[in-house]
Amino acid sequence: MTIREIEQQIIEEFLVFDNWMDKYQYIIDLGKSMPVIQESAKTEENLIKGCQSRVWLDCREEDGRLYFSADSDAIITKGIISLLIRVYDGHTPQEIIESEIEFIDTIGLRSNLSPTRANGLVSMLKQIKLYAVAYNEKIEAEKSKEDMEEEKYSIEQVQKNVITALKQVFDPEIPVNVYDLGLIYEVNVQENRNVYIKMTMTSPTCPMAEDVVSDVNNAVSDAPGVKGVQIELTFEPEWDESRMSEEARLELGLM
Asked: What is the number of helices (H) and of strands (E) in the chain?
């Protein structure tokens, strides 16, 4: 659900109640049912400044989205922060930064709080936004770093790096690297610098096939500019000596 959709859901829930005593009780019940922050996260760093009561708010980032947990020593405040978490939990930093919360005034929450609790509400909102700004800057910095890496290593350069890495992996039975031996059928470097490799073995019954594939994966993964590796092992067409490079033939005395 979008932030706006969640807000509308909350607004509709509060329309059920005729007076603010019932609404307060609903907020209290929400606070009681909210999963609380871990005791280890009740640190000075997570303590929201500007609240009449103590409120701890923790934030973690996962796959570009923010997830919150909180607790308070005041039950009504706990209910209020649970509403905010419900709105913002699981959204991206950018979505949180750009959001203009409306449900607070629509349900009359701000106007029915004491001045000190209203100030605390503002502090909670501010802290959530600060978390979003901080994580957004972190994500943007990581993105810029990735962009710089891509500029540093062109697809052509990554291709060369992969081939160099492949030449460091040797067949366990023949003293020639897998690339010159002709075991590599395809090397495809994609735009995101993930590398697809199609390879074979000198024999379908090679007992060391799994080890060789693992060595190839490790070598290519460590090649400069490579983000990920996918390897397909095939025996169609079957390998034969015609696939060897001239260097390999010379090494084996076949020329």
From this structure: 9, 5
Q: What is the pLDDT of residues 90-133, one digit of tens each?
A: 999 999 999 998 999 999 999 998 888 888 999 999 999 999 99
Among candidates 56, 27, 25, which has minimal Cα distance to 43? 56
- Cite the residue boundaries of each domain of the chain with CATH code 3.30.300.130: 155-251
pLDDT tens digit sequence for 42-77: 999 999 987 778 899 999 999 889 999 999 988 999
- Extended strands (E) in the chain: 55-62, 65-72, 184-189, 194-199, 228-233
Element (H, E) at 56: strand 55-62
Give the CATH H-level superfamily of domain 155-251: Fe-S cluster assembly (FSCA) (3.30.300.130)
Which residues are identified as catalytic? 51
**Which regions of the chain carry the CATH code 3.90.1010.10?**
3-148
Q: Are 121 and 49 in contact (CB under 8 A)?
A: no
CB 225 within 8 A of CB 190: no
Cα 216 from Cα 233, distance rounded (Å)? 11
